[in-house]
Amino acid sequence: MNDFQKELCRNLAKYCQDVIEPHMEHDDAEGKFRMEFFKGLGDYGVTGVTLPELYGGAGLTYSDYCYVLEEIAKVSVPYAVTVSVSSMVQTILNEYGNEDQKRKYLPALTSGEEIGAFALSESHSGSDAASLKTTAKKVDGGYVLNGTKMWITSGGIAKTYIVMARTGAEGAKGVSAFIVRDGAQGFSYGKAEKKMGWKTSPTKELIFENCFVATEDRLLEEGQGFNVAMGGLDRGRVAIAAIGVGCAQRALDEAVSYSLTRQQFKQAIFDFQGLQFMMADMALEVESSRLMVFAAAKSIDEKVHNSKLCSMAKLKATDCAMKVTTDAVQVLGGVGYTAEYPVERFMRDAKVLQIVEGTNQIQRVVIARHLKKEYENHA
Ligand code: CAA
Fold first, then answer.
1. Which of 116, 192, 250, 329 has the CB geometry, 3.0–4.6 Å to 86, for a possible disulfide?
2. How far is the CA of 294 from the centre of ligand 1 (A)?
3. Counting beta carbons within 10 angstroms of the beta carbon of residue 303, is it exposed (0 to 12), middle (13 to 18) or buried (19 or more)?
4. Cα of 232 to ligand 1 centre, how many Å?
5. 365 and 241 together in one domain
6. Over its length of 379 residues, how does the chain's per-residue pLDDT go in tens digits?
7. Are residues 262 and 373 in the same domain?
């Protein structure tokens, strides 16, 4: 970490610990999201980290962004996720949007005034994303959207949605990407999901019933929406990986601190070799995941397209988050299973990291496909 990154993380950690942390246990129990916390993160310049200054972003690197997410995730995985999904929307707009779209939608997102959300999944198309059924029928001046999107992170609190819908034949080539605003006629929200974790991050259905979207709100050309989604997800997966590292680091911190003070059999439980080995393995997992995240972030900063490395980082760091948080609960024992300590919350928040932005089985599919291509090319 360079001096700038250290300073950025120090200030951000103070905000997260002083302002967000004291509410986490209560808000997790109540399922309460607070827009003022998100705006507060915006005031620290971390809601549009990698976006150009021209559009209100901080103009920093993806590596800087990963440190930021790790820091927020140490206090709240759901707020880190809200930032990361909104940032993925910005990356998509910046990469695939035209100048008018960027000027119109980016500043409110980069500043943290508004939140962005990404709508790809449907009830029957999760992993097989290219089979989505929501339609966008061409009409005079635009398109009419019909269909329902499922499990949308920040559904209902976001103002700008990137929505993938079918304009053509079956499969990936028939998908187009659209920008849809909260409040658009024919766009409403369905049920809020009751979840195991991520309680402070709302997840909702999006319902489109004859929702008109102007042609100027289509990203790229018709039929390029699947590539838009996959390009956004490549980078999004590294962000989810960075959140996994933050989540795991917090669990490790809690486990080591607790085990140094908890006495059993007249000694600190840390001094039992059984627990030492466990915590050494936890630390090894966290550090190796972090290295993988920064290798992937570096490839993004160097503009070397490397979906394989992005998927590897996501797979490694989110499996690490699940393992390390589970082990942290074990180290704390009975109190670890109660809300008196935050490790059970981090364990619940870790689980879905292995599922969102492509399950870890899908990450293996991506890795294997790349391996096949590489080895066939060398044959
Ligand atoms: N970047 C750009 N384009 C890509 C790409 C990438 N990383 N990966 C694939 N494409 C393109 C391909 O090049 C191809 O286009 P061409 O024919 O023009 O070359 C097109 O997309 C179709 O590719 P595939 O044939 O590989 O597509 P597939 O149907 O076999 O699916 C998959 C591939 C990897 C399994 C994909 O469906 C996938 O990633 N599934 C998981 C879905 C997912 O991640 N959902 C996340 C939901 S969002 C979320 O979770 C956010 C949140 O709320 C937190």
1. 116
2. 23
3. exposed
4. 10
5. yes
6. 888 888 989 999 999 999 999 999 999 999 999 999 999 999 999 999 999 999 999 999 999 999 999 999 999 999 999 999 999 999 999 999 999 999 999 999 999 999 999 999 999 999 999 999 999 999 999 999 999 999 999 999 999 999 999 999 999 999 999 999 999 999 999 999 999 999 999 999 999 999 999 999 999 999 999 999 999 999 999 999 999 999 999 999 999 999 999 999 999 999 999 999 999 999 999 999 999 999 999 999 999 989 999 999 999 999 999 999 999 999 999 999 999 999 999 999 999 999 999 999 999 999 999 999 999 987 7
7. yes
Our answer to whether residue 357 is catalytic in this structure is: yes
Q: Sign of the CA dihedral 209, 215, 221, 222? A: positive
What's the total number of domains in the chain?
A: 3
Ligand 1 centre distance from Cα of residue 177 (Å): 13
Q: Which amino acid is located at 7 in the chain?
A: E
Residue that terminates a domain, selected from 189, 223, 257? 223
Tokens read off for 69: 């997410």
Is 220 close to ligand 1, i.e. is its CB under 6 Å away?
no
Q: Please give the model's pTM, rounded to 2 decimal places.
A: 0.97
Mutate to test the pocket of ligand 1, among 204, 233, 314, 351 (most ligand atoms within 8 A of CB): 233
**Are 127 and 204 in a shared domain?**
yes
Per annotation, catalytic residue among 114, 205, 285, 357: 357
**Structural domain of residue 184, as residue ranges?**
117-223
Task: Report which of 135, 209, 212, 126 is spatially closest to residue 166, judged by C-alpha positions.
Answer: 135
